[in-house]
Amino acid sequence: MATTSVMGGVVKRREDPALIQGLGKYTDDFAPVGTLRVAFLRSPVARARITRLDTSRAKEIPGVVAVYTHDDVAHLGPLLAQVPVGKLRPLLAAGEVNHVGEAIAMVVAEDRYIAQDAVEAIEVDFDELPAVIDLRKAASDEVVIHEELGSNVLHTWTYHGYWEALGLEDQTPQVDEAMQREDAVVVSLDMVNQRLIPVAIEPRSVLAEYEPGYGRLTVHSSTQVPHALAGAIATQLEMSIRDVRVVAPEVGGGFGCKLNVYNDEILVAWASRELGRPVKWTETRREAAGATIHGRGWVATATLVGTRDGQFLGYKLEGIADMGAYSQNFTVAIPLLGLWIASGQYKMPVSWTVDCVVTNTMTTDAYRGAGRPEAIYYLERIIDAYAREIGMDPIEVREKNFWQPEEFPATLGCGFALDSGDYAAATQRLKEIADYEGLKRRRDEARAEGRLVGIGVGSYVEVCGFGPAVLADIGFSWSAYGLPSSFNGSGLVRVNPDGTATVIIGTGPSGQGHQTAWAQIVSDGLGIPLDDIRVHHGDSATSPMGIGTFGSRSLAVDGTATFAATEAVREKAAKIAAKLLEAAPEDIVFADGGAHVAGSPDRGVDWKAIAQAAYQGHTLPEGVDSGLEETIIHTPGNATWPFGTHLAMVEVDPDTGDVELLEYYAVDDCGNQVNPMIVNGQVHGGIAQGVGQALFEDAYYDQDGNLLTGSLVDYPIPTAADLPSFQLSHTVTPTPVNPMGVKGIGEAGTIGSAHTVVNAVVDALEPLGVKHVDMPLRPRKVWAAIQEARA
Amino acid sequence: MYPRQFDYVAPTSLDEAYGALGDDSKVLAGGMSLIPLMKMRLLSPGTLVDIGRIPGLDAIEDKGDHISIGALVRHSTTAGHPLIAQHAPALAQAAGMTGDVQVRNRGTTCGSLAHVDVAADQPAAVLAHGGVAVVGSASGTREVMADAFCMDTLTADLSPNEILLEIRLPKAGPGEGSAYDKLGRRGGHSDYAVAGVAAWVKMDAGSITDARVAITGVGTKPSLLPEVSQALIGTDGSESAVASAAEHAVDGVTVLEDLYGSVEYKTHLAKVYAKRAIQKAIGSIRA
Predict the structure, then answer these.
(1) Which of A153, A221, A407, A715 has the fewest CB atoms found within 10 Å of its own CB?
(2) B32 lies in which domain range?
(3) How far is A30 from chain B (nearest CA, A)?
(4) Smallest Cβ distance to A659: which of B2, B187, B260?
(5) Number of domain units in chain B
(6) Do B272 and A713 touch (CB under 8 A)?
(7) Contact B186/A716, CB-based, under 8 Å?
(8) What pLDDT, on a 0 to 100 scale, did the predictor assign at position A107?
(9) Complex confidence, ipTM
(10) Is B193 found in the same domain as B161?
């Protein structure tokens, strides 16, 4: 069907000219006349009862319109969550605070300076309680944070537990038996996968305009989920989705943190309705650090059992995952995503136990990879330790245990089936592009000179593009937000009367290039030039129902819907063109901005003529309705399972512990690619964030619950200057799950990279006998590990 | 991140600026440290006196017996200026390792000295070069050795009614060399210094006749290390001589722990970077 060559082509991102000239419009750029501004009083202590809260002085400040506390909003209930396990977040602190940064009071004022002055004038007294920060201490229930829950442990994910109902086998006995085998090699490590701050460059921002005359609410928000936010606001404010419109204009990065619906979004919408005026709040960088969700935050023991010759016999993970103080959107469900890919690319039984515990910290939730980087990190680190233990090349040991191409679809112990894969092929490609043998030679030469140079490899499987829809029935339900329990994507394709095309999709991108990739899909299907296609997204009033952009899902799900809508438009247009050209519909070919009869390029009409006929109506063939647009809502039948293998080469300064990332190679397989340049861009950003976790980033609370990394001075993120030029390649194993054969690529780079870098550093330190260093591998830690090994 | 209310004046002459300064004022040059502090409400001056429109403060000049760096000279200018490259290489290197491109294009070398951040790069280099701070006020100017000027954490010898007008650096003579080296927070030379050392060395006939070594990042302020200098003077600058001098790298320094280093680690780094900077300085003489 491909009639143009744009699919799979490197097309420059059409959204970029506006963005790089500073002409993009973000939520904070919208300022209707009379907009009020909001500031929040946030808790300076981690755990306390509020014994006095006096807003009277704040209310007297000229320009202050309102100061709200819990009593004003208690009737709205706590913040809705999709997975309501644990204590839900009160919209404003309900007589107690449970983490530094928790919102206690909300000031609405004529400008943001006055609002901040008023925050300072609010008087509050605390009766402080002991904070619980350490994960093992939290799991011990020595101090229970939310007494009404009875325990800090909200849930325990096991590899079998959740799926027992489905009749799946518990593989723990198999793993335990393997450990008892005479020839078993058992390798175990305690490892930290530290808490991270997402750091979107555009902070979150929300602007609500309630129009009393019409009873409707329009909300601009820097969100990844416009439809879900509209549903959540409507549900929480007891309105109808019909009367709530959410617009996500340009969104400057999200990485999952803008997939949450936040209390501030509800409060700003509510305040606008209360006051009958536009109300806006834009978070400060410190609020972005301490009051927007965090990611990761696990401690775990990983154990691999295998034979002396490299055959895996089983894998066990026993961990604790930090949920923070309150459960928000997915929170408790995040580790489940890791469980699904716990066995990575390998065929072996798995035993998995992760306790989800409450601490006096900011909520954790989805951050690029969400449960999957954690799971893959533990698995790939322990495989490396095992390879070292048996003296086998780390790539060879992986190759020995891969699922083989002919075994797909490969059903996992968790019940899911891997859709497609050729893990050995991707690994082979990696060895070629990195010249693996040459690299090892260079490493060994450097070692001979006494330098600490190391090579690390790591493979991964990702699960993304969720469904199947049945997931909604086992915990991932959007119904709390007033949406159907599904993982639908949507696409509307309209050929306009002038022959151009308008595409409207249900996604909420934050830099992923949807305006380019979707135009390619439609251009490819209809032969309408890219420049004649405009893609809209992120407006719940105009886009067909969708659930936004997250979980590397947009192309596989909403892309599939758009692909199908394009096909439907093309079929209809073929009938119309056939009549105009006095030919049979099956002989119509679309190319170069119009249709022609196959074999007779001179017998053609352009899209304008087809569209005019379509909208004119009375000249249409019998049985063809007027108009030229189609909307498809697509329900995915399965998730997709991208994969890849990465390699890093590092050098460690033995005197300082400073790690230099010398070279980085990645082979990723996301199935067919619509735009390889965008794919590479996603991999680049993903690797940068994985390297950030491996080397720099750490959202650090002290034992009193103070966030010591509350600004970018104290929370270093990687910049281009810290990274080598990545060498990327791909294999292409299409998925059978959707007609385009596409998987997802948004999170792959992050899932594949952190352990790869750590494996490389541990390899560099191998001559000293270092077995593990916990992330982030800041020089102080690497140096301490060197000192310890030398002692 | 929204400051408290303040007045803003932008004088076009020094006299006008002195008139605007008072007990509750702050001088604004590049604003790379001041503005974030104000936005976090950690600092709330009543009046901001922006000296950016006063002519004559933005030059690096050869004044015959010294090099002058004006109050409005940006880090990027200091990093790339031929006079600094010739006479104060350690400062050029430190300026090039300060912040990122945007910060270097906006922040000023004098502002960095006046701010006395515990982990700033350039003050250490100014100290090692034997720099002098020239401070102006309505009642005239006074000169203070940079070492004395950096009194304590975030505290310079500068009254609210004074302006740091320029930094004066001695011109380089024969047999002199200098260098700055550091470990940054994101490794390498990135970001604030976890530990940074600037070294200035003078050699004659194969032996060290004079030296000044200064440290940043590890203690309460950038400071000179006289014990290191004393240990170097009279030696041949060999690796072992430098290493044993570098052992004094935290003498008189109160080493502070932070997220990037324990006291033990920072003490160790101080010695490593003292050695590296001194060796580079000596290497630059021999080259």
Answers:
(1) A407
(2) 7-50
(3) 19
(4) B187
(5) 3
(6) no
(7) yes
(8) 98
(9) 0.95
(10) no
